[in-house]
From TrEMBL:
It is a multi-pass membrane protein. Belongs to the BCCT transporter (TC 2.A.15) family. Its main location: membrane. NCBIfam families: bcct. Keywords: Cell membrane, Membrane, Transmembrane, Transmembrane helix, Transport. It holds the Pfam family BCCT. It is found in: Cell membrane. It comes from Colwellia psychrerythraea (strain 34H / ATCC BAA-681). The chain crosses the membrane at residues 12-34, 54-72, 92-113, 147-165, 186-213, 233-252, 264-284, 319-337, 349-374, 417-437, 464-483, 489-508. This is Transporter, BCCT family.
Amino acid sequence: MVANHGLLKGMNPVTTLVSMAIITLFVLCGVFFTEQTAALFTAVSGWILSYLKWYYIGIVAIFLFFCIWLAFSRYGNLRLGDDDSRPEYSNFSWFSMLFSAGMGIGLVFWSIAEPIYHFQSNPFITEGLTPEAAQVAMRLTFFHWGLHPWAIYVVVGLSLAYFSYRKKLPLTIRSALYPLIGKKMYGPIGHAVDVLAVFGTVFGVATSLGLGVTQMNTGLNTMFGMEVSLSNQIILIAVISAIATISVVSGVGKGVKILSEVNMWLTIGILVFLLCFGPTRYLLGAVLQSTGDYLGNVLSLSTWTDANENSQWQSWWTAFYWGWWMSWAPFVGMFIARISKGRTIREFIVGVLLVPTMLGFIWLTLFGGTAIYLELFHQVTNEAGELVAAVGQAGIVDAVKADVTSALYVTLDKLDAGFMGTIAAFMATLLIATYFITSSDSGTLVVTTILSMGNEHPPTAHRVAWGLGEGAVAAILLLVGGLKGLQTAAITAALPFSLVMIVMMWGLMRSLKEEKLTPAVYAPAKLVTN
């Protein structure tokens, strides 16, 4: 299944060449037919979100219920590996890598912008910029970044970890198909599934890198006066992609692990800053209140399809997010599987579902809650010299409308923390860079692992090539303005992959039931061919 000589030594020739051809084709279309490519995928994703949003919402709800049931089932004590295997990484390192790969740049980018958007208007309020609107804004933001995306990752990651480490199959997406199609997974069906996973990973990572570098450029402009321009953004992509490539060459146990831990410490540092210099009492209360509010409404939100009014809001937000998370599932799921060997099924599900979700809630509350507080309780001096309420006039709402990337820095500036505010802005920009690097090197590791048929230490030359290639894709998308069009392409890829995820659940349950009857493991196919 993998070549033992030539340029593709150690890689599956079919999936590697097909993946390279498809990605090159999409990039060329983005360069030479930018408007047409963007229009095509915008139309396709628009059709999916308009006519199949009920399916996206329903299937993601099923993923979450499946995960909760499985965590408390009789299969929870089974280990992802041999019965005597134990975790390779400490809990802190594991949680750090989970959070960095699963959310990363996106959470930094949207942690203020999304709550502020919902604070102004959403389907559940009659008037924006009110205390009620603030509560609903945090509820919806929690919903989009909470249990549901991590349930998507659990389904993929658990299936891959189980079949790879317990059933001794290759660490690739196709292995989850084994209980249903047997050795046919090594044929065209398996190739197609792996290529789809590579496509979603490359463009998902490239899109996030594009988002991250624009926000980083804004931060460097705020602190050092660097001009916000495409040329500077491409330079930033080149520099950070090179660092990411060095990191991924060093492997998970060194570069990726160390950078993920740096991410976690930077995250803790900036959260402590917000807690100390922000509206502390309000934020502490908001964490508890918003979490309880989310848990009290999560069931109804999970099945709400806006059937009566069919507004565009849900297509723009919830259905869009669910498709986006599913397009990222091959990447994040594979990476989570790679770092979870030796953990029990229950430990895996509880850890992946709850810990990153709670950290995300704290992050969203401290960032988004601070921005909402500043807008909700902003005061100005009137002509009589009296302080009067000026809700929505703090400048953050205007910043989100004008330039989403500036919302983070405007919020930090409005805290008026002086020198500490400058340090916080620097830490935030550094955090974007480290998340950028971990997203890139994690994505590179996943792509090369898939293409090498599950080799946890893929050939170095291919790790370098794909690492630099992801940066090149991100730079090209920014250069030609095709970022949005190819982002919608990744969302479109979520539709067929959602069917793969259904098969994953089915195959996992079938194998778990068989294991209770017989402890035999599947014999792996011979991977190296002449």
